[in-house]
Write a structure and sequence with these properties.
There is one protein chain. By secondary structure, the protein is mainly beta. The chain has a domain of about 300 residues: Beta Barrel (Lipocalin). It contains eight helices and 34 strands. Strands 29, 30, 31, 32 and 33 form a five-stranded antiparallel sheet that branches. Strands 3-2-1-34 form a four-stranded antiparallel sheet, with no helix packed on it. A four-stranded antiparallel sheet has the order 4-5-6-7.
Length: about 500
């Protein structure tokens, strides 16, 4: 925030913010807000996104590391990485917590509670939820006793989830203001498409059932984000587990087996009320509302469509979507198709809602856009971090609407980076962006065989938060190719104190 002033987007939303608070006086959300701003001993997280930006610098990061589809026969594990430049263990894995089972495919983690419970002093952010994409287990990890050496607290077996929810293949975990934990599912226990939500008790972590009403699941599932002030949740689609589990088949796209819709849910009634069909929006994955809890818009990254779409609330209370960024495909030779999409696989927003970041896993670049005007994002930073079109590789670019030449391979501290930028996480102050290179083990194996052999990496990017811009930190590298049991695939990143993609404010 240059000069300490609020971005223009926030200034335009202040009237809506105040009006929303006035309307919500006497409700639980207003009570939560008021107590959050006045409480002496508060709950987890921060009262507002802007207050979160003043939080302490991250010192450790948690990453699930995967061995499924690699040559190592070992369980997945949770890695703790030291990211404190003052520490003698900087850029090192300082702890590994192996899971008790094999081939789980740990994926996206979440917290038992977050800033949505800031006004509740009885809550604390001490448990990290680890849903498994393939085994459908949920591991509950205790990080409160010793954050640098987490311990396994509980295992929720798939049979319990299957029996109570008829769901499996779990993906995104979010804490709720009720104290419960909700986890999205991609399918039913047999691997057919089914976009439902598993609800866990936030204290005992017992499976309570589904969040959605019986029979009300979406056709497909993946990610979700909720915004209580507008009584809405929106979920996304990947594909049925049986379609994506063992790799990507272009024929499945032609057959219409991949998702292309957003599903709008009534937050209070737990019912799907609208489906938004995306134009050119194949495989909408990560979805993010603006962090301002009064905002009625956000963005979703469409992987195969290679575009960013903005969703927003209409005056009549319905929702619409429009494409605001398009990454053009590249005509290539030596690849599985004559045209290579960028494959946008992760997106996030800075806590002040000023910048949008996303990764193009196949093309290999990471991008930063100024979204002060959400309808017209403006490219302010771009950095190539590996990818499929680097010079000297098997792919020859025949026609490129953006680049004049193929980018050079990335070498950091003597390590040539395999794969491309994938999962991203931003520091609270917005000045450091962390990147890992693994997407999903079956797709890693198919698109980046070197990634399987050499392991993924974790990189750090310095961010210009005033004018915009990205710069690689050449002294930061966590090489998961050198893990004790063999090269591992590190995935999503979490800080103990919460971050840009795990905290939701009321």
């Amino acid at each position: 925030m240059p000069g300490g002033s609020l971005p223009s987007l926030w200034l335009t939303l202040v009237p809506d913010f105040v009006a929303s608070l006035a309307r919500l006086q006497g409700t639980r959300r207003a009570t939560s807000y008021n107590s959050a701003t006045k409480c002496g001993k508060c709950g987890p997280g921060y009262p507002t996104p802007l207050e979160a930006m003043k939080g302490p610098r991250e010192e450790i990061v948690y990453l699930p590391c995967i061995y499924r589809n690699t040559s190592t026969e070992a369980p997945d594990y949770l890695a703790t990485v030291d990211v404190d430049p003052k520490s003698p263990q900087y850029c090192q894995v300082i702890h590994r917590l192996p899971m008790p089972n094999m081939k789980d495919e740990l994926h996206h983690s979440g917290w038992n509670t977050c800033s949505s419970c800031f006004g509740d002093s009885t809550k604390s952010r001490t448990k990290l939820m680890l849903p498994c994409l393939i085994s459908s287990r949920i591991y509950v990890v205790d990080v409160g006793t010793e954050p640098r050496a987490p311990k396994l607290h509980k295992v929720i077996e798939p049979q319990d989830i299957h029996a109570k929810c008829d769901l499996g293949y779990l993906h995104t975990s979010h804490c709720l203001a009720s104290g419960e934990v909700m986890i999205s599912a991609l399918g039913d226990p047999k691997g057919n498409g089914k976009g439902g939500f598993v609800l866990l008790d936030g204290e005992t972590f017992e499976v309570k059932g589904t969040w959605e009403r019986p029979g009300g699941a979406a056709p497909l599932g993946y990610d979700f984000w909720y915004q209580p002030r507008h009584n809405v949740m929106i979920s996304t689609e990947w594909a049925a587990p049986n379609v994506l589990r063992d790799g990507f088949n272009p024929a499945d796209v032609q057959a219409g087996l991949y998702g292309s819709c957003l599903h709008v849910w009534d937050w209070q009634r737990h019912e799907m009320v609208q489906t938004l069909h995306l134009q050119d929006g194949l495989i909408p994955l990560e979805i993010r509302f603006l962090h301002n809890p009064a905002a009625s818009q956000g963005f979703v990254g469409c992987a195969l469509g290679s575009n960013i779409q903005r969703f927003y609330k209409n005056e009549g209370g319905t929702w619409s979507v429009e494409k605001v960024i398009q990454v053009p495909p590249k005509k290539v030779k030596g690849w599985m198709l004559p045209e290579m999409p960028s494959l946008i696989t992760d997106i996030l927003l800075s806590l002040d809602d000023r910048f949008l970041y996303f990764s193009n896993w196949l093309h290999g670049d990471l991008r930063q856009y100024d979204i002060s005007d959400p309808k017209r994002p403006r490219l302010t930073g771009q950095l190539f971090l590996g990818g499929s079109i680097v010079k000297g590789g098997p792919v020859q670019v025949l026609e490129d609407q953006e680049l004049k030449s193929q980018p050079e391979p990335l070498v950091v501290k003597g390590k040539r980076v395999a794969g491309g930028p994938q999962m991203i996480q931003l520091s609270l102050d917005g000045k450091r962006l962390y990147v890992t290179t693994s997407l999903y083990s079956a797709w890693d194996k198919q698109f980046y065989p070197d990634l399987i052999r050499e392991g993924s990496v974790m990189l750090q990017i310095d961010v210009d938060t005033e004018k915009g811009g990205l710069k690689l930190n050449p002294n930061f590298l966590v090489d998961f190719g050198k893990e004790p049991l063999g090269p591992a695939l590190a995935h999503e990143l979490r800080y103990p104190g919460g971050d840009c993609s795990s905290d939701i404010w009321l």
